[in-house]
């Protein structure tokens, strides 16, 4: 133990963990005791707890000597007395009274019974708070007892002279027992120790004796603290720090003991409080890190003092005056903090506060711009204690947001919004003052002092907002999340390697959590972030903050509040209402037949809207407005509202988009409609045309979304959905058009204006028909047409001059439908007799096709809805027109044709389905859009001409692609679009654009065809769609132009035709057509993959595209075979016709076994035989024969599983079918034997293949044995065959021979 290194925290101890008794002390000579005490006191006064390196070494040597001496003494006692020195227990210590009586002769009896266990001091440094408290309690109780015994001694000087320990006679503690004086010295030195929790424990140990033992002189104790923990020039930085912190803890213990208050109460003229204040402030001035805790120590004392001593003693301390005088110059936040707390205590404008606090003091004056500028240095310098936030800021936050403001905001947020309450809020002086305070604070301190400065001060700004958030009312968000703060936040978040990125991210997360359950706060934060980022917060910061905020509105009140704030932001209103309110106007008696309006002329000098540029050139405000417009339709996306509430919010959005997008006020910026009882506002600066178009597009999207969520109308209900968005919009549009001071945002030409009015009339008629339709008509047809009419009406405003003709055609189509009450009555039959009058459905289909190329997404959705409800009435002509678009292709260059022709196979396998891969276009195609590339669909498939699909087409329409009998005007519009694409093809610069436009057009038409197949899965026209889509897939240019287009076609065929539960069952579909189709599909299934023969290796991308196309074509052939066979099985064809089907499969099997060119998969044949067992049964003998005589060896091995599975289904082994199975097996036994001979004679070398042969033979042997045909098999094999089987199969064949059957 003596040689063990000890820390300097224990340097004040001569003996550790032993009992210090009076008898043991008396053993030492007096001179030696005085010398040791003198050395110890000198070391403690000069260097405790740390000294220079030489002083430390000397002190360590002293400790080792003392420790060795004590150890020898203890050993001697054990040797002679047999009693060892007992260690006191850690918890409540029992005084040790076991000591040698001979040692007590030189001490009085009272002193001899006194002892001070040193383990008390050890336990005071424990990390366990309960141990420290128990040790402090035991120590103070023991010191009280010792002091009481000391005071009872008649001759105290004899004890003081013989027992000084480390205490000096001139320390001023003359009335204290030596043990007490020693304990005080040790406790004072202990608070300077950094070991574990020594500071806390020794400070507690010092507080208790001072508070309960009145004999301790406070003034002397303060001197002892200063002397014992004084700083010398020989100390290192760490030693100095420990001494200063020790003095701070010692002063804290003195302040908490209560003795300063007691001394003042006993003598009010005492200067002890002033001296203590001077000492504490003087200590704080030595190091900056001491200032804030020193202030807290002083405030702890001030809280316990009455007001009088604070004013007469604390406030009069010279060091305090000096601190306040220099505070604003050096930037001392602790001085400001102390001044605020002292003023709160005394409530008097003391002159000492003149430079820190306004006179007279008030919250408004404190947060005035001038005063904040004066104390800004104090606030800025509070960053020194980061990452901890200075205590000053909690006081500032409480002053900024008093409880009265927070409570009033809470009451208002939960109460209903009324104008009376809002007026009360505005007239509340407390709220007005708080608003001014937070505004000034954010402008002067947050923006002027912190955000524009260093990273540390930006960090402080975020910390301040963390303190503000829990109490911050929603109305203050606009001041706190100011322009400069939001821009600073965006700058940090946009750079991930920024020093403050984690701080900003954490703040953003806290902000999101703060608005979690409060729609008002969520709206305020969203508006502030987007307003100061020009609507680009998420884009700049690479986050989804605004998107997530907008997605959390789930109530009607929240959606309405968010909507009103968006609208107010758009019209540039400075005051944003915090609660939703609906303006109701009291109507005077007046006629409502024509709308009377009132215009408020806020800004009459508004330029023409047509003169405005696009969004990108009108400034950042337009970017923000564009975000507002785009956000409106998404408000209801995540809201969980009832249909009635959702409709109310939809109407508000619809009105705003219609007003801002369709109209403008010719006089001023406000118009009041007395008919609608509403006031409409426009921005003071005219809205650019680009923003008006955005409003119209979002209006289209809103109407489209409303159509998707509407429930389909039941047939014959006789009622439309109550006040649906379409009806409301058309009424609203008509009402605004009747206001004299309101006009459309753009003027229309004569054709567009006529079409615009015609569509309004058409919608009105459709609405009446929908309400009055009976059981014979589906109201959904009229409802879908109404949506399409409204979308087309808006398209006219978006693209003037482009849709007027289509609008007229749609109106005419609807008018004809009204005259017949149903489009079914004009389905095109008998059209050959009167070709000048096209069918109404043909006109409708042509119109829909003409609208598709340039239509917006909402309009395409409406077109698809109309087609969904009318597709059952689509004629063959209309269907073929749609398919004609799918088969259209840009004419390839001549050199491309020549190169492609080299890659084509001349065999019939390449000309699958008898479809030419590329037909020549007419030379006039580029000029007229007409084409003769398709002569007659009956010629596209060999033998499909007599099908019912084509019999519905007029017999004399061999050249139907010339568009005879069609609506020429409507078809010309679609062909004009195609012709325009072909014209662009001639220009090399427009090649890519033309191809992409054509692909896009085809994809949109495919969507209509998918709807048709979904609604009509069992009609014979499904075959027509299938054949044309298959032709498009087989066309090489389809994959070259767009692989997604090819995949889309294949997906439609697969999902809507092959996997559909229903399929065409029309009896008029002739066998020859199905047989021809089956034959071509079998060729497709066996089609080999051909790579390019060019000398240059194709790129990986081209190889991948070619391989993907090959897989699609192969899958097409296989699945088409399954589908055609399903149709064949559903029909009752004759044996002769079915034999032709079998011949086709025989040819496929021959190709599989005899040529390597065939790429037919054996799994495909297995699936055919599994689905149609009769085919496998009929072809089993042929299959065995071809397998036994296969020209390609590996094909024989591949077919073994097919043979096994077919034989299992052909020859079931059970008691009921035993005889029949035996007969069938005998029929094919000879061919099986031949196959087995070939297999064992040509045993493959690969282990996998050999195992496959053994497995096949084992299955055959098992079946033969079960049917008792073993002898027949062995006889058929003959001696040579048996020998070969025994050699190749071994035990497998021997087990069969041992079976006697």
TrEMBL record:
Residue ranges of the region described as Disordered: 1-111, 581-618, 917-963
Any GO BP: regulation of DNA-templated transcription
GO cellular component: nucleolus
Pfam families per record: DNA_pol_phi
Protein's UniProt keywords contain Membrane: no
Entry keywords, A to Z: Nucleus
Composition skew (Polar residues), residue ranges: 14-26
Compositional bias (Basic and acidic residues): 67-81
Sample GO molecular function, one term: DNA binding
Listed InterPro entries: ARM-type_fold, DNA_pol_V/MYBBP1A
Main subcellular location: nucleus
Compositional bias segments (type: Acidic residues): 917-939
Locations listed in the record: Nucleus
Family of this protein: Belongs to the MYBBP1A family.
The protein's name: DNA polymerase V family
Organism: Arabidopsis lyrata subsp. lyrata (Lyre-leaved rock-cress)
């Amino acid at each position: 133990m003596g040689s063990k290194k000890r820390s300097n925290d224990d340097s004040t101890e001569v003996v550790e963990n032993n009992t210090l008794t009076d008898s043991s002390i008396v053993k030492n000579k007096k001179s030696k005791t005085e010398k040791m005490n003198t050395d110890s006191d000198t070391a403690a006064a000069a260097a405790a707890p740390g000294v220079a390196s030489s002083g430390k070494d000397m002190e360590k040597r002293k400790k080792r000597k003392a420790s060795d001496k004590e150890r020898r003494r203890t050993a001697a006692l054990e040797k002679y007395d047999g009693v060892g020195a007992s260690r006191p227990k850690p918890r409540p210590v029992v005084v040790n009274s076991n000591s040698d009586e001979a040692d007590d002769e030189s001490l009085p009896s009272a002193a001899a019974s006194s002892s001070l266990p040193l383990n008390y001091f050890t336990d005071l440094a424990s990390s366990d708070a309960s141990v420290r408290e128990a040790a402090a309690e035991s120590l103070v109780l023991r010191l009280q007892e010792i002091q009481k015994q000391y005071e009872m001694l008649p001759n105290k000087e004899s004890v003081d002279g013989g027992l000084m320990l480390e205490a000096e006679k001139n320390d001023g503690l003359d009335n204290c027992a030596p043990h007490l004086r020693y304990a005080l010295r040790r406790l004072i030195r202990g608070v300077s120790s950094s070991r574990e929790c020594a500071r806390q424990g020794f400070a507690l140990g010092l507080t208790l004796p001072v508070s309960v033992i009145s004999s301790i002189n406070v003034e002397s104790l303060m001197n002892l603290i200063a002397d014992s923990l004084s700083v010398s020039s020989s100390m290192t930085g760490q030693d100095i720090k420990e001494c200063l912190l020790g003095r701070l803890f010692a002063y804290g213990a003195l302040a908490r003991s209560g003795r300063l208050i007691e001394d003042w109460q006993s003598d009010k003229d005492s200067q002890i409080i002033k001296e203590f204040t001077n000492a504490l402030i003087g200590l704080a001035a030595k190091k900056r890190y001491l200032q804030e805790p020193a202030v807290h120590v002083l405030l702890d004392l001030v809280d316990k003092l009455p007001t009088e001593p604070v004013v007469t003693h604390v406030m009069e301390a010279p060091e305090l005056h000096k601190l306040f005088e220099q505070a604003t110059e050096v930037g001392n936040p602790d001085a400001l903090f102390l001044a605020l707390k002292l003023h709160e205590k005394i409530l008097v404008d003391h002159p000492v506060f003149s430079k820190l606090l306004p006179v007279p003091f008030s919250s408004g004056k404190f947060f005035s711009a001038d005063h904040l500028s004066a104390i800004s240095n104090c606030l800025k310098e509070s960053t020194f204690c980061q990452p901890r936030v200075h205590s000053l800021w909690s006081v500032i936050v409480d002053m900024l947001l008093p409880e009265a403001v927070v409570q009033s905001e809470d009451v208002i947020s939960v109460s209903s919004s009324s104008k009376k309450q809002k007026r009360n809020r505005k007239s509340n002086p407390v709220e007005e003052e708080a608003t001014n305070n937070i505004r000034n604070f954010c402008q002067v301190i947050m923006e002027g002092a912190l955000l524009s400065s260093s990273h540390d001060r930006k960090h402080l700004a975020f910390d301040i907002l963390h303190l503000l958030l829990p109490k911050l009312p929603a109305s203050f968000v606009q001041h706190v999340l100011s322009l400069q703060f939001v821009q600073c936040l965006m700058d940090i978040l946009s750079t991930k390697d920024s020093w403050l990125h984690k701080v900003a991210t954490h703040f953003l997360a806290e902000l999101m959590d703060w608005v979690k359950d409060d729609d008002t706060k969520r709206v305020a934060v969203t508006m502030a972030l987007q307003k100061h980022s020009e609507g680009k917060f998420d884009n700049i910061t690479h986050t989804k903050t605004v998107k997530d905020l907008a997605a959390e509105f789930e109530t009607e009140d929240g959606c309405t509040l968010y909507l009103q704030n968006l609208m107010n932001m758009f019209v540039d209103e400075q005051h944003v209402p915090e609660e939703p309110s609906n303006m109701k106007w009291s109507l005077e008696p007046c006629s409502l037949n024509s709308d009377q309006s009132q215009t408020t002329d806020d800004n009459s000098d508004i330029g023409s809207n047509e003169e405005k540029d696009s969004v990108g050139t009108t400034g950042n405000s337009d970017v923000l407005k564009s975000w507002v417009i785009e956000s409106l339709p998404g408000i209801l996306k995540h809201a969980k509202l009832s249909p009635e509430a959702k409709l109310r919010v939809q109407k508000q959005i619809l009105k705003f988009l219609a007003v801002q997008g369709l109209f403008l006020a010719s006089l001023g910026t406000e118009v009041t409609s007395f008919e609608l009882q509403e006031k409409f506002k426009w921005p003071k600066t005219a809205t650019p045309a680009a923003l008006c178009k955005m409003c119209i597009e979002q209006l289209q999207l809103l109407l489209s979304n409303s159509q998707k969520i509407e429930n389909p109308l039941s047939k014959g209900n006789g009622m439309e959905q109550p006040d649906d968005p379409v009806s409301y919009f058309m009424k609203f549009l008509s009402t605004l058009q009747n206001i004299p001071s309101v006009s459309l945002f753009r003027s229309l030409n004569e054709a567009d204006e006529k079409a615009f009015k015609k569509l309004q009339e058409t919608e009105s008629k459709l609405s009446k028909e929908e309400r009055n339709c009976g059981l014979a008509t589906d109201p959904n047809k009229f409802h879908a047409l109404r949506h399409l009419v409204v979308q087309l009406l808006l398209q006219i405003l978006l693209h003037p001059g482009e849709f007027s003709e289509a609008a007229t055609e749609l109106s005419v189509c609807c008018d004809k439908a009204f005259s017949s009450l149903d489009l079914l009555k004009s389905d095109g039959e008998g059209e050959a007799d009167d070709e000048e009058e096209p069918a109404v459905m043909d006109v409708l289909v042509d119109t829909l096709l003409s609208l598709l190329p340039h239509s917006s997404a909402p309009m395409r959705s409406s077109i698809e809805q109309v087609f969904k409800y009318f597709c059952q009435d689509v004629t063959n002509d209309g269907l073929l027109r749609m398919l004609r678009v799918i088969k259209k292709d840009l004419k390839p260059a001549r050199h491309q044709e020549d190169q492609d022709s080299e890659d084509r196979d001349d065999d019939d396998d390449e000309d699958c389905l008898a479809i030419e891969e590329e037909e020549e276009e007419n030379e006039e195609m580029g000029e007229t859009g007409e084409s003769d590339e398709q002569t007659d669909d009956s010629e596209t498939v060999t033998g499909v001409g007599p099908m019912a699909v084509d019999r519905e087409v007029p017999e004399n329409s061999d050249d139907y692609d010339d568009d005879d009998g069609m609506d020429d005007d409507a078809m010309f519009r679609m062909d004009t679009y195609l012709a325009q694409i072909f014209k662009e093809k001639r220009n090399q610069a427009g090649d890519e654009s033309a191809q992409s436009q054509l692909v896009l057009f085809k994809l949109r038409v495919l969507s209509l065809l998918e709807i048709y197949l979904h609604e009509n899965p069992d009609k014979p026209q499904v075959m027509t769609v299938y054949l044309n889509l298959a032709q498009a897939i087989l066309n090489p240019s389809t994959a070259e132009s767009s692989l997604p287009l090819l995949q889309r076609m294949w997906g439609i065929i697969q999902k809507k035709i092959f996997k559909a539960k229903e399929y065409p069952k029309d009896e008029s579909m002739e066998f020859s057509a199905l047989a021809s189709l089956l034959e071509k599909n079998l060729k497709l299934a066996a089609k080999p993959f051909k790579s390019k023969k060019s000398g240059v290796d194709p790129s990986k991308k081209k190889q991948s595209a070619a391989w993907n196309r090959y897989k699609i074509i192969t899958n097409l052939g296989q699945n088409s075979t399954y589908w055609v066979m399903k149709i064949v099985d559903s029909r009752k064809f004759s044996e002769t016709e079915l034999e032709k089907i079998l011949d086709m499969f025989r040819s496929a099997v021959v190709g599989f076994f005899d040529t390597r060119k065939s790429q037919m998969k054996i799994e495909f044949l297995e699936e055919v035989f599994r689905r149609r067992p009769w085919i496998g049964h009929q072809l089993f003998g042929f299959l065995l024969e071809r397998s036994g005589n296969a020209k390609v060896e590996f094909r024989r091995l591949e077919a073994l599983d097919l043979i096994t599975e077919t034989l299992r289904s052909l020859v079931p082994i059970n008691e009921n079918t035993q005889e029949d199975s035996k007969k069938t097996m005998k029929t094919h036994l000879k061919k099986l034997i031949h196959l087995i001979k070939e297999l064992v004679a040509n045993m493959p070398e690969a282990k996998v293949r050999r195992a496959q042969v053994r497995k096949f033979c084992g299955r055959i042997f098992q079946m033969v044995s079960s049917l008792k045909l073993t002898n027949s098999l062995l006889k058929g094999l003959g001696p040579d065959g048996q020998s070969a089987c025994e050699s190749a199969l071994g035990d497998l064949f021997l087990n069969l021979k041992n079976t006697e059957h």
